[in-house]
Amino acid sequence: MAFRVGLRFAQFTRVARASLRQPIGRRSQTTDAAAAPEQGTFQRLWNSPIGMKTVHFWAPVMKWTLVLAGASDFARPAEKLSLTQNLALTCTGAIWTRWCFIIKPRNILLAAVNFLLGCVGVVQVTRILMYQQSLKDATIPEVAGQDAKGEAEIAKGIAKHLEGAAKNAGVK
Length: 172
Known about the structure:
mainly alpha; 72% helix
């Protein structure tokens, strides 16, 4: 019998504590769209859970620089690209694209930038692997000739720089 009295007391105190947590005189909120004041576009963007004053907005905006930097590397030759760096961009894009759909609030802008980051990484990794495969297919003299051309270009750049430095110093 004493057990039942103790159980009723515990249940009562849980209910009493829950009712004390709610503020007294709380205003009622309506879900009626017609009764709610209409907000402007900027105000809705500002007050949104993924609005301009949150990291959910600024993280994707800043991450676009990675996508643009990766896309600008399309113009670079494949031998100058880093496989590990572009593989990291690919994995980052794939993992975070999935994560953007799991977190709350769901952030479509962040998912889009991560998806494109993964796409840029896939393109670059493919270019690098195709270049490495072409080197395996090439003969040793061809590879040596390509390396010699690269070294000659570097030497020409150094020579041009020395001529410019000599002109600036007044040496003939």
